[in-house]
Amino acid sequence: MKITIISDIRGKAKSIIPYGLKLAKDLEAEVDVIHMIDTRMQQGVSSMYSDSQSVTPGNKFSHEEIMQREKKQVEADLDKLLSSEVSRLNYPLKINVKVDVGSIRSKTSTVLNSGPTTLLIMNNEPDEYIFDDQKEIVDTCKNFNGISVIVPPGYEYQKISNVVLPTDFDLNELQSFRNITDVINKFGPVVSAFGQSSDIKPQAIEHWEEEVGSVFEGSQVSSKIIDTSNFHQEFIDFEEMIEPDMTLLFEQPKGILESIFKKDLFEQVLKETKFPVLFYSMKK
User: Fold this and answer.
1) Would you say 232 and 200 are in contact if contact means Cβ atoms under 8 Å apart?
2) Three-state DSSP state, 163
3) What is the reported pTM?
4) I want to staple 160 with a disulfide (CB 3.0 to 4.6 A). Which of 20, 114, 187, 256 is the partner?
């Protein structure tokens, strides 16, 4: 298994890189830390006068020199952070650092989608450097053929023992669930399903729970069914009560869930909750 962590060291929020490294340790995964230098954010021209190492004050950096200087500084900052965090892990974690020029959306739609990456981990809070805003984070996850984990800034890592899952109790969901078993089955968490259904019979829900339990091996599955016109807020309130280690969300094709998720639940959960979110894109 491979985990790719999107660097957030240029942002003001506390880094989620420590979370990603600890998750990689538990999943026994190799790690790529990717930092994208987006040329949109590097349009200014820096003066050598402000560079204490410069011997020719007054000259200007070319765009290429700005890129190279930024790349070297990022590599140094990442090396410092990673060295400190890895020493705390006391575990031989394999980490590759990649600093590239370009946009993260382009990177996820090309290189990462064609590689062996299983997990893409990023900060919930946009740094205005790699990500302009939260919508760009959402679009990046949806553009990625696989699993994304979005983590609130500085969230303290803990083993995944309790997850919440919005559902319409459709057995067709099971195929999506199977695509994340390499992560979930490593921990065997309690799965708290939350759904809206006015006509499904209790026996059908019990059968759904049994089937989900057979996919998420070692997990106990329970369900809460509501009848409300405000599914999003009820789900978020449920999250706040449960305090999960992770929320599981899936990009669903148009169908039954479209009537439930009239607005993008993914975006609202990122904005209004304080727990990591595992999002699985169903682009494949």
Assistant:
1) no
2) strand
3) 0.86
4) 187
